[in-house]
């Protein structure tokens, strides 16, 4: 049998081969990993659907493969007995009526991918002028059977009988992208965009174009917070984790989101409804060699600083090793991007759709500020909150910011003590 790339999940139809886990001649079992595929922002292992001996491998490292494309050929471990001769074809009965919409729930066809079908199905397709790459397969392994051909014919009949839609209104065309020869002005070098970088570029463009952004800036006095961190850091290290500013940030954001649920919502553009979420799942932007990855930390509002600290380390490591799963990248309600460990102050983070807000943290800096009519030295943390102005107004953003500052500045020993 030919093993083909299965459905990769919502919104994903292709990936890049980053690791081959088997070679020709290997005996494998059902569920054993065949290869690792980089899809969207995750690296997933593609398992074998059945056991057997690996024959030919049709892909190599760096290949981009699509759902339905052949990966390997797989032979049974035991020699299969010779097939019995096929019985003589009986006189065909009258054709059964064809359903109006028989293929609605079948997996999509894969144009351009060589389909799997018996010689008799191929002969019928040739006689009827049917392109089998357009037919949706219902059998395991993407095999096309007679019912699939009937369903395809029924769909063609249905489309032919449907009234023609009125021509759509003219849409302004996007200007064509021009290629510039930069080598005319000096030496250059080139490197291809990775799949992850392409995903980031596409999503950032979509988010920026779809959401009217506004960014609110302020600074939090974290002098007392850092003193607490310094005092209790050894106790957290004894528990196997690090107490960081990000741990406090997650705790402060989760508490503020409970007071301002509109920041923990999403806009359903189809139903024209604002969806308020009772859960708080915080996305944490992680800077990796391959690009920005945002794993999601679940139920941040229900966890202690110790639990948050452990989750941060675990998710960050998985993200940097590209071992974070697709599910761990979904379901976020609000995102935090902390650049403090790198440097810089205020910046304008882009909202991660379908969320409606994101918090950007810069590097804390010692500043002279006025406290009780006295100029004192305090450690000030730059905050930048970008939000979707379709959902959140400026007044709501200002109130959220005030409460977030208070959350950063009001940590007590009882909040940190183990």
Polypeptide structure, described:
- There is one protein chain.
- α1 links the parallel β9 (116-117) and β10 (143-144).
- This protein has three domains: 2-75, Beta Barrel (OB fold (Dihydrolipoamide Acetyltransferase, E2P)), CATH 2.40.50.100; 116-160, E3-binding domain (Dihydrolipoamide Transferase, Irregular), CATH 4.10.320.10; 207-416, Chloramphenicol Acetyltransferase.
- The longest helix has 16 residues, at 146-161.
- Residues 79-107 have low confidence and may be disordered.
- It is of the alpha+beta class.
- The strands form six sheets. Strands 11, 14, 17, 18, 19, 20 and 21 form a seven-stranded mixed β-sheet that branches.
- 26% of the residues lie in helices and 25% in strands.
Layout of strands and helices, then pairs:
Elements: E1 2-4, E2 14-20, E3 27-28, E4 33-39, E5 42-47, E6 52-57, E7 64-66, E8 70-75, E9 116-117, H1 119-128, E10 143-144, H2 146-161, H3 195-210, E11 213-221, H4 223-238, H5 245-259, E12 265-268, E13 273-276, E14 282-284, E15 286-288, E16 291-293, E17 296-297, H6 305-320, E18 334-338, E19 357-361, E20 365-371, E21 374-388, H7 394-409, H8 413-416
Parallel strand pairs: 9-10, 14-18, 18-19
Antiparallel strand pairs: 1-8, 2-4, 2-7, 3-6, 4-5, 6-8, 11-21, 12-13, 14-17, 15-16, 19-21, 20-21
Helix pairs in contact: 5-6, 5-7
